[in-house]
Amino acid sequence: MSLAAPDPAAPARADASPAASLAALPILLRPGRPDDVPALLDIYNGQIVSSVSPLHLEPRTLEMWEQWFADHQSDVHPLVVAEAGGRVAGYACLSAFRPPAAYLCTAELSVYVHRDARGRGVATLLMEAILGKARACGRIHSIVSHITGDNEPSRGLHRKMGFELCGTLREAGLKFGRYHDVHVYQLMLGEDA
Fold first, then answer.
1. Which of these CATH numbers, 3.40.50.170, 3.40.630.30, 3.40.190.10, 3.40.50.300, describes 27-188?
2. How many Å is the maximal CA-CA distance in the chain?
3. How far apart are the first and last CA of the chain?
4. Rg of the chain over CA atoms, in angstroms?
5. pTM to 2 decimals?
């Protein structure tokens, strides 16, 4: 999950966003649509080249992201998009945690916000919406989130939403010439899921 400012050690990235800023526009939350895929990919790839969240080293392709989109079209693994002025401002999704069937009761959370829409509560809105969907589906017992590096805005948001720190994988990833810790947060949804 990514909420923090770009990593200062990351390579510089040209701003590919349109001139209109997302900062002052009202936010609409909605399900993801197939025509969102390029914008969602742009947000994710922007994070790959500018921060340590995620720890991917190479940008994802459109073909990969079309499959990712297809994988997030169920009530167990939904996708919520934040829109501002007709443009994608961010997204949240729940993904499969691990392949074995015993892990179907656990989902992994991801939240990414477009760089022009940060600092206005978009991540909070997305988290509230995706957690509501997780509770409503009735099949998810716990949600896990991996937060890379010193991403205090993301860690603070997780704590605010009731997540607890389960542990830290020390220096688990190597990106931009440095090792980075991965903090594991978990939210239990209850025995009824």
1. 3.40.630.30
2. 48
3. 24
4. 16
5. 0.86
